[in-house]
């Protein structure tokens, strides 16, 4: 295992890591608020079946590449920070790269990325640079005890690119009190079976809320998307505002909001031939699979489906969709 100091330094950067995987970078400047858009056109009938809903959600498979340089990020779990400008380039399924600068007071020169084999982030530290990295397959095998609660590529799905595997749906179609459609999946992984819950717009057929539960039944990640824009040439919608919350095994939850001005779809806004190649030359390199959390949560709960129809009948609302920070979204 890497030393305790490495774990502590990692937690100092954890919020920045999450911000950058969501948005693609950060500087001190601010962006104007994203304009409110009209709702996307309806694509589902008033009584859709599961197959229709899955097909509607999976229309985003037409988007293979996505870029933006007009995003802003508000780190809700660090209210003293200013709103940050952001850029991102990604290519399905795992290619991702960001180069950015942090505010001067915190140093400069972030390099965040992912390719088909591994993900990484390079950060300034003590007047040098440290590269944190992990292979996707190794990290997924230890997600139940990893320092981050999900593989960071999950955040790419939350930007509007989620795909639902119909073979993993293990519960009947359900509805929330405000009319959203609910699909639940059981996702087997090396670390155990994770439950993913999708709340979908009943007319537009796009994902609004996502929740990820660990094999122990603990909520570890969630996202809430809004202000969707319909792209007729691609036949699907993308959100311009997304709120995220990650709950690590140790440390405080990480909450943030990303607002996106404009998208470049199916093109990469970079001519760098090494865009998705891990950088070289950092003074220190740390394999994330060697860092364990400072404290582990209990793992006695069993993975259970969530019965929204029964809960809503008795007047119960799922905890996080009804939590104060997300109420009214």
Short summary of the structure?
The chain has 329 residues and is an alpha+beta fold. The protein has five helices and 15 strands.
What is the CATH C-level name? Mainly Beta
Instruction: Give the rounded overall mean pLDDT.
Output: 76
Q: Looking at CATH, which topology would you report?
A: outer membrane lipoprotein receptor (LolB), chain A
Please identify, by name, the CATH architecture.
Answer: Clam
Approximate shape: globular
| Percent of residues in β-strands | 25-35%
Class of secondary structure makeup: alpha+beta
Distance between the termini: 42 Å
What's the alpha carbon Rg, rounded to whole Å? 19 Å
Topology diagram in text:
Layout: H1 4-23, H2 50-57, E1 65-74, E2 84-91, E3 95-100, E4 110-114, E5 118-125, E6 128-135, H3 136-141, H4 154-161, E7 174-175, E8 181-189, E9 192-200, E10 207-213, E11 219-231, E12 236-246, E13 254-260, E14 264-265, E15 284-287, H5 308-313
Parallel strand pairs: 6-15
Antiparallel strand pairs: 1-2, 1-13, 1-14, 2-3, 3-4, 4-5, 5-6, 7-8, 8-9, 9-10, 10-11, 11-12, 12-13
Note down, in words, how this protein is organized:
- The chain has a 15-stranded mixed β-sheet that branches.
- It has five helices and 15 strands.
- The chain has a single domain (4-313), classed as Lipoprotein localisation LolA/LolB/LppX (outer membrane lipoprotein receptor (LolB), chain A, Clam).
- The N and C termini lie far apart (42 Å).
- 15% of the residues lie in helices and 33% in strands.
- β2 (84-91) and β3 (95-100) form a beta hairpin.
- The protein is α+β, with helices and mostly antiparallel strands.
- It has helices spanning 4-23, 50-57, 136-141, 154-161, 308-313; strands at 65-74, 84-91, 95-100, 110-114, 118-125, 128-135, 174-175, 181-189, 192-200, 207-213, 219-231, 236-246, 254-260, 264-265, 284-287.
């Amino acid at each position: 295992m890497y030393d305790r100091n490495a774990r502590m330094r990692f937690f100092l950067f954890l919020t920045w890591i999450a911000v950058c995987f969501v948005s693609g970078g950060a500087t001190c400047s601010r962006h104007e608020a994203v304009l409110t858009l009209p709702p996307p056109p309806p694509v589902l009938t008033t009584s859709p079946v599961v197959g229709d809903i899955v097909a509607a959600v999976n229309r985003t498979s037409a988007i293979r590449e996505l870029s933006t340089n007009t995003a802003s990020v508000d780190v809700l779990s660090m209210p003293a920070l200013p709103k940050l400008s952001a850029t991102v380039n990604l290519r399905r399924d795992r290619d991702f790269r960001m180069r950015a600068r942090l505010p001067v007071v915190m140093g400069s020169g972030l390099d965040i990325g992912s390719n088909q084999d591994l993900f990484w982030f390079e950060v300034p530290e003590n007047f040098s640079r440290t590269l944190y990295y992990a292979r996707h397959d190794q990290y997924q095998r230890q997600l139940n005890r990893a320092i981050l609660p999900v593989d960071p590529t999950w955040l790419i799905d939350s930007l509007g690119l989620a795909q639902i595997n119909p073979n993993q749906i293990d519960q009947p179609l359900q509805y929330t009190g405000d009319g959203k459609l609910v699909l639940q999946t059981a996702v087997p992984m090396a670390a155990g079976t994770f439950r993913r819950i999708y709340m979908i717009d009943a007319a537009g057929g796009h994902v609004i809320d996502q929740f990820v539960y660990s094999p122990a039944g603990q909520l570890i990640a969630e996202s809430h998307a809004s202000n969707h824009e319909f792209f007729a040439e691609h036949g699907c919608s993308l959100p311009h505002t997304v709120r995220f919350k990650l709950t690590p095994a140790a440390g405080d939850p990480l909450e943030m909001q990303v607002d996106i001005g404009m998208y470049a779809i199916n093109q990469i806004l970079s001519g760098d031939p090494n865009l998705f190649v891990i950088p070289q030359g950092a003074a220190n390199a740390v394999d994330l699979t060697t860092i364990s959390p400072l404290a582990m949560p209990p793992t006695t709960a069993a993975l259970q489906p969530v019965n929204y129809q029964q809960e809503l009948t008795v007047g119960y609302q799922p905890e996080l969709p009804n939590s104060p920070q997300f109420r009214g979204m």
